[in-house]
Amino acid sequence: MVNMVIIGANVGRSDPSAAWVQIRKNGWRGLFVEPLPQSFEKLKQYYSDVEGNYFEQAAIMPDVPENEGLKGYVTFYYNLDLTTSASTISNHRNNLNETTVPAMTLTRLLEKYNLIDVEFDLLQLDIEGQDISVLKSTDFTHILPKYIRVETIHNPQNQIDDLSTHLKKWGYAVLSPDPFWKEYAANHPAPEKEHYNTVYIKKEEG
After folding, report:
1. Is the pTM of this model over 0.85?
2. What is the rounded distance in angstroms from the CA atom of residue 130 to the CA atom of residue 148?
3. Could you give the CA distance from residue 179 to residue 23 in angstroms, rounded to a whole number?
4. d(C-alpha 173, C-alpha 201), whole Å
5. Burial 168-177 (b: 16+ CB within 10 A, else e)
6. Residues β-bridged to residue 145
7. Kindly report the CA angle at 174 between 199 and 22, in degrees rounded to 5?
8. What's the pLDDT score for residue 130?
9. CA gap 148, 48 in Å, rounded
10. How does pLDDT run across 22-78, given as a tens digit for each residue?
11. Cβ distance 120 to 3 under 8 Å?
């Protein structure tokens, strides 16, 4: 059973992610997605002692790009001194190195793992600037997380408002405070601030 889908899972236990707390302390299981090969290997190693998780090395994009004639691949840029971060933006965090990775939409990812029309607890995104674009390009009619947790600290308020309007079509509303932050912060020596992420909850019908 998959409890959460983590897009931009990094190396496992990282500053922005609350996922590892749910795995280690609360017994959740997840689908972890990370594009950068170096980080992906560390991610699998971090959770190697826990059965029932799934791992996908891919970039989740608003649409499927074409890179040098190859459909479904995208160029990622990264800094050798900061291999826990990568982006499709070449100058992001002084990224000087590049690699080509598979790419897919969020819908295609969930289709691959049979998570369409399946309820799960948490969809979390931290994908260096593509977060809101991916969510706004997604139809949530058959994608059913209870919570959506997305990094928005670098987005202007009008973009966050546009995302909220998009998600409202499927019954999602902003939830504050972040229900995942307190436990995460209690188990991390230098946690990110609570306001770095926006959390949405799917409201009960009726």
Report:
1. yes
2. 15
3. 16
4. 6
5. eebebeebee
6. 120
7. 25
8. 87
9. 26
10. 998 889 999 999 998 888 999 999 999 999 999 999 999 998 766 656 668 888 777
11. yes
**In terms of pLDDT, which residue wins out, 110 or 71?**
110
Tokens 């059973």 sit on residue: 1
The pLDDT of residue 84 is above 60: no
The DSSP string of 129-187 is T-HHHHHHT---SS-EEEEEEEE-TTS-HHHHHHHHHHHHTTTEEEESS-TTHHHHHHT
Tokens in use for 70? 């190859």
Sheet strands (E) in the chain: 4-7, 30-33, 54-56, 59-60, 66-67, 70-71, 73-79, 82-87, 97-104, 119-125, 144-151, 172-175, 197-202
What SS3 state is found at 124? strand
